[in-house]
Here is the input.
Amino acid sequence: MLYRKLKVTEMNRMTVEQFHESEKLPLIVVLDGVRSLYNVGSVFRTGDAFRIEGVVLCGITAIPPNSEIHKTALGAEDSVTWWHFKDTLEAVKWLRGEGYQLFAIEQCEGSTMLPDFQPECSQKYAVFLGNEVKGVQQAVVDACDGCIEIPQFGTKHSMNVSVTAGIIIYDFWQKISNL
Here is the structure.
């Protein structure tokens, strides 16, 4: 069988306005001090692809509009709702008040391995991804309801934050999406 690549006009993508009005995956991704603007843009783009509720940018994490974020987001920073907090613990309080269950994506004692994590369809979730060097702040880990860990089998102890976000977002979409 031969495969012909689809043209953009054949993909029937929604407009930004339709995106804003559409049902969302009940997931917010929180970036805790992420330094790379390309990583931030990539999280926006993946968040758009799976129609997450939004992205929370904390601490030194850059915010739109920004040309380096746009370079990887390709406009997803306009479709995906975002919020900014100077302190990640302020975001924790806000999300808890909004009824989200909070999980740090981190390697911790007692972490739940991602394949074993089963989110509930009726619950809203926020996942915290940390700085490229230090990860999620310990105070934020302590404030979360739990930790989810992505199994790794090689020699490295971490993955790029945007790759981690993609894995987590896809896993949530696969387990609870009704989009």
